[in-house]
Model the fold of this input.
Amino acid sequence: MHYPWWYVPNFTAPMLIAGIATIHVFVSLYAVGGGIVLAGEVSHAYKSNDRPMLDYLRTHTLFFILLTVVFGAITGVGIWWTIGLASPLATESLIHIFVFGWAMEYVFFVIEIVSAFVFHYYWGRLDPKTHAAIGWIYAISAYISLVLITGITAFQLDIGNWTPEKGMWTAFFNPQTIPQIMARSGAALLLASLYIYLHAAFKLRNDVHLRSLVENRVSKWGMAGAALVTAGGAWWYVNIPESAKSALAGASALNILTALIFLASAVVFFMLYFGPYRHPGWLNPGFAILYFLLGIAATGTGEFIREGARKPYIVYNYVTGNNVLVSEIPKLQASGYLNGGVWTRAYLKEQYPQAVTKDGNIDYAEMLKLPVAEQVKVGKVLFQYHCNDCHSTNGFSGLDRLTQGWTRDMISTVVTHLNKAHYFMPPWCGNDAEAVLITEFIQSLSEPTPAGMKFSEEESSEKEKTSNLAAREESDR
Amino acid sequence: MNPTDLIGPASPLGNPAPFWFITFFKVLGLILHMIPMNVWFAGMILVAVFSTFGKNHSLELAHRLSRTMPAVVALGINLGIVPLLFTQVGYYQFYYPAGVLMARAWFSVIVILLFAYYGVYVYSLSVRSNRRTKFALTSAWISSIAFVLISFLFANNFSLMANVNDWIHIYTRTSESGAALGTGLNTADPTLIPRWLMMFGIAITTTAVFIVFDAVFFKRKDTSDNYRKWAGKFAFAFYTLGIVVYAVMGSWYVFGALGESVLNPIGQSSFMKILFPLTAISPGLVWIALFAQRKGLRKATTITAGTLQVFVITLNAVSRQWVQNEEIFKFKDVSQLPVQVQWSPMIVFLLLFVIGLTVVGWMIAKIAEVEKRGAEEIQVK
Done:
């Protein structure tokens, strides 16, 4: 409400965040886990004077840099970019709480970048001790970045004891932080091992001995990662807020996915044990791809669950999904959602000057006197600012299908009791007149009950919708 | 309608640091970002042009630049986050609306940057492996064009931030049912083009200094005296071109585009009376240093030119900040927003900042030792 809303037709702007964040996580976890595995394995190879292993690790480092320093870094910046566009108020709030957390993270990012380049481009030109030390500098700074960013994203799900008067540390050390760090550390190690398998399966296709060695050594990191994911995930589940537990238990998609992620982690653990650890050497490109896809699926699912469990908030109990401060809701309900929004008020002033009072506020009585077609248009403005963060009109999570076959009364009742009907939705933040306006809009979208269903014979929604609209237009005339 | 009606309320959380602190790190971040950003902005154009049309030394220059470019881009991107972070802390009421109004273009920066960065790598790796293909050359061109496009979009967003008077026009023209489509650009703003190209002028000058720096300090064993001589002459000519672009665009910006409301305070502030002219003439100092070594590069003069160029960039960053404040404060004085200082996180950040600089310094010292020693590989015993 403080900022203009970005309308992305058929998709919703926040889904862009989900898209970028998911692909970023696949690479950023590798950037952390891969750094630790590379530092550990390079140190070991120097100690054991294993030249072939060092040569392999050198080729892997280039692959690692091309993926993490370029794609990982840009998609990381991309998340930041996109949250500012799709959820500006939430971003504003997070930045005011965590600016120094982010600033610290960027200190470590710079160390990461410099150390990654020195590690790769000066390979063989630095003495082994310094080279390995630089590998560890990378690993440690990447890990601290993970810790810092996890504290911030964990805060979004559970603010713990934080209140606006309390500082960053209270926000950072929320009940979710440590379990999530544990789970993500595991995911980082696990994914790193799967990336290395993938790379080694192709790069060392004809060198069974070296490939076996790589598989065997890396499987230990992978199994440790799988164990950490499982333990961290379980701890996380125990600690999440009641609403998140209810969502995970209640939403069939979420509870199936939650079970799947634990199952996938366990399967990967045993596959690593019986495969590369006990029988190194048989990992061909096909198996490596399968492992990799399993790891990606588990990671993506974990992120999906983590995000889904947060609803209806972007910052739990502080900013709702539709970019409203929880503290502002009562005022908006009293004075009007459109009236309380900086940009909505300006827009309506331009479009409907006749429905604006002398002191610049929206005159809702006048709004309700507008012809139905105009009321539908105003209803769409409400939709954009109240609903479009999760719903499109007729695309992703489209209201046309979600309200298919609903009567006008049903729409109105759900609108005015949003959070009662679905606790994972925010409360209705507008006044009564606005509820009427948005009901008009949703009804104009709502599809009739699919034809041919037996119990739809006697009450055709389409007929009802048409007759309702006709009746309203008649009364307008 | 009053343009200030579109400025959202202040955050109830208050700013986590005093405004001077936010501004200091915003400007410091911009200075640190501008150095590598300038090098890729003008440098990638040189890489593309000289790789296509260059011979001998000019081709060698393209190759040398392309070898260091991946690290330059990586550093520049990460350092660029710092000013953006502090912009979002101190100027959020202006930054977010501007971004949303041009959201599609702003979002596309990420996609364009991916192409630009991978293009840099493709060309750089092709040079390192001595396998320059048409694909690699095309990648260099794509990168250089992509960087120019990104700079244009940045100039758009940061000028739109201050162009509050036009927000309502852009918004009503490019919205659907009150929500921004994100298709607005700030192209009607007279400051946009000179502001954008003034940065291009500075980028040329910084790249010219980088060329000299590279010839004197990087890959010394492989650098011939002939190349060094050529690099000195070329850098001087290139710097001269940069000064011309900078002077023309700067004059257009100051005398033809900036409004009275920004120019008048210059006359009233004794600090700005000194800073503005100094910003305008400062590249002349570097130009003299480069002029002095047209016929032979010297370490001391190169270091002087480099230091002076950082000074030029610093003056530009400070002047830009001052202009931005003048443009924005007339709508809302964001320096007066409530502050709730987060002391302990701030102190930890400052400590880590110093530690970070030390660690980076240590790594640079290590590679400097290697460079001094020569390019040979150490064999593991």
Q: What stands out?
A: Chain A has a mean pLDDT of 91. Chain A touches chain B through 85 residues (CB under 8 Å). Chain A has two domains: 13-320, 326-476.
